[in-house]
Amino acid sequence: ERARRTIPGGITHDIRHLPPFPVYVSRAQGSRKWDVDGQEYVDYWMGHGALFLGHCHPAVVSAIQEQAARGTHLGACHEAEVRWAELVQRLISSAEMVRFTMSGTEATHLALRLARAYTARPKVIKLTGHFHGWHDGVAAGVHPPFDVPLSAGIPGATLDQVLLCHPNDPKAVQGLIERGDVAAVILEPAGGQAGLIPTIPGYLQELRALTTRERVVLIFDEVITGFRYAPGGAQAYFGVTPDLTTLAKIVAGGLPGGAVAGKREIMSLIAHRGDPGWDRSERVAHAGTFNANPLSAAAGIATLETVADGTLHARANKLGEELRAALGLVMKRAGAPGAVFGESSI
Question: 258: which residues sit within 8 A by CB, 6+ positions away?
């Protein structure tokens, strides 16, 4: 009731809308968290998927504490952001260059801007049921009925730039691309929201071949799958390299942070060239007070170094498969209509 008097709806993220009231957590450790009434929970959600190492992993906590003593917001470039980018580049196959943001929503927003600048085309193909954040440019086709936008307050002209297509239908994507005005195809390659309708074998490979042939930018939204399916994300797991990849959640070790990674020729559109005409009218602008924040960098580095060899992914994937199989068996024994499915640790 206190929250409802000061915060709209009493929550700070739509996904936490849980009737009759949301859970208020007071502390967390490892795989557990405790609410304000002292009740203990097993946390299968893990911070919306951001905490691959669990709550308060010692290496991450130590890295954050050490950085906090040196500065929480330096307002300048710092060595940790370079080390962080180098780790992303090492693990993600598409990451020839990396630019940090403060969220997954910001990452997809920047990726689409880059794609439009690179191709000089306005339209974006988005798959129904896939989620790419809450900004206006991707607020179509998220939840059924797909012809209703994710939110009120979005200009129709903005929604007109988004072309919707059902998942697992490469011919439909080809038909839209043949319009000649498509800058990018953006999708979740697996997992997360898109996992409700699993990606069929061969679909990603067909998209890669099609977009390459038509010079359309292929964007993998790996905000959820990045560093989860494998150290190199879903693109490593499936063996398909996109032009751009958007990251958040695990990339920042559970702190606020995201990134766009991709081909050098596309990412270089952000760089200043010292040419006043180019820098003012051709360059892709990208600002952000807390981009590559040193605390997020410290947590991200500690996390990525810990998961880099893939050992923890093998364990998490095995546990995920065991859990799915056991839940499915329970449902079968109970005669409950339904099934449990997923990939990796999703």
Answer: 100, 101, 102, 103, 104, 105, 106, 107, 223, 246, 247, 248, 251, 252
